[in-house]
Specification:
The chain has 500 residues and is mostly beta strands. The chain has one helix and 33 strands. The strands form five sheets. It has a 17-stranded antiparallel β-sheet that branches. The protein has a four-stranded antiparallel β-sheet with strand order 1-33-32-31, with no helix packed on it. Strands 19-20-21-22 form a four-stranded antiparallel β-sheet, covered by helices on one side.
Amino acid sequence: MRSQRRILIVFLALAGSILPAAFASSRVEAERALASVPAWFEASAGRYAPGVKYVSHHGSGTLLVGASGATFRDRQGTLSFAFLGANSHGRVEGVEATGSRSSYLLGNDRRQWKHGIAHYAKVRASAVYPGVDVIYYLSGRHLEFDLLVAPGADAGQIRLAFEGAGKPKLDRDGNLEFANGMRQQRPVAYQDGEAGKQAVDARYVLARNGEIRLALGSYDTRRALVIDPILHVGYLGGDLGDIAKAIAVDRQGNVWVTGSSGSTLELPAQVEPIQERPAGGKDVFVAKFKPDAAGKLTLAYWTQLGGSAEDVAEAITVDSAGFVYLAGSTASSDFPGAGAKLQDAHKGNLDAFVVKIWPGDAGTAALWFSQVYGGTGLDVAYAIAVDSANNIYFAGYTLSIDLPLAAATPAQAANRDGYEGFLVQVNPAASTPLAYATYLGGRGTDVITAIAVAAPGDVYLAGYTASDNFPVTDDAYQWNMRSTLDAFLVRLDLNRTGQD
């Protein structure tokens, strides 16, 4: 192959396999940051079974609240408790609005997107029994539900049953212990009087059939009574598997992390996210950690993005203005779109995607550009970069022989065989955003794992190849492969055409 200015390719022999650079961060600090976020409830908005009225996503599980009980779900299973004989059609409403809201971007049908779902610190279920209301709230790792017994109401109506926790027993202090390790503390009961709170003796009584009743000491039935059980439900972390794939640091020292997540967690004090919870099994997540003066990282932003199948971000970068760029792969035919299309539809069971986000905008307005790219085979983007003219470059590997190519003549117009590298240049502000696309590789496996841009159109690529006919220039550092898997370095000048 003749010497060319347009392409400079260097082989680097490897002693072993190529691994992506790892980012060392403290899991403990991350967990502390997530655990410090206040709990909240929001209306179920038809996203759960009909009996579920409010939901809380916090830590390692999800709490679902209905008119006559609640259910806690985490990766270990499901725990439910119900007030036996209760009114299952009573009113359930949020109490103490926090001022924050949720937004759900599920799929690419904007008519199905939900916005402005208010957050509350507590939920009140009214008239669970005649004259008895229940208020649910979360305190750290504990679920508390205050039983409010109105003057003259019968507290003896209250009966509890648990499902999914195993057989309960009472310890010597009057706490309830369950076979699965869950524990409910002995209840505290009191009445408000002129001298402040006046304690009322309260304890649990276990019936033979496993139901739980309350035994109360003497109290003034002419005044309201509050009974406060505390249930340890173990909130901490995310409720499903989370994988961090890439990291970037902006000019202010904020740390941006992306990958895939099936978790739902409470939001920090931030603008409304694009999507608060996953729409599929796992969705892309974007998290911002802000350092304080001592260097401790605190979760400052969280959003998710995806369709009804699995979506994974593999790369992230942040430009000088603060825009966040993502690239990865999606199996979702309804991956959320924004901006002019790169192609008409999702084509393979995995397509690459490219996304531009402005985190300062609330809800779906933060999504400035979001498009899928690929052919009928597998297409995965592993790297992303942006130039000073706001063009986006993403690269990775493909099994497709029919990638969409731009009008500009590519350096390599066809897949030579199997896993082939690819590079795409996008102008997200243009009516036809696909500015350049090319294959890159030989007859073996070729994967682009990293990208850098020196100036608009001046692109550097790195990755690995098993192709003994990988295209090299006459002035290459190494002409021949020295291993079954070698690294490569490529420079492309996209301002030229073809292989000039």
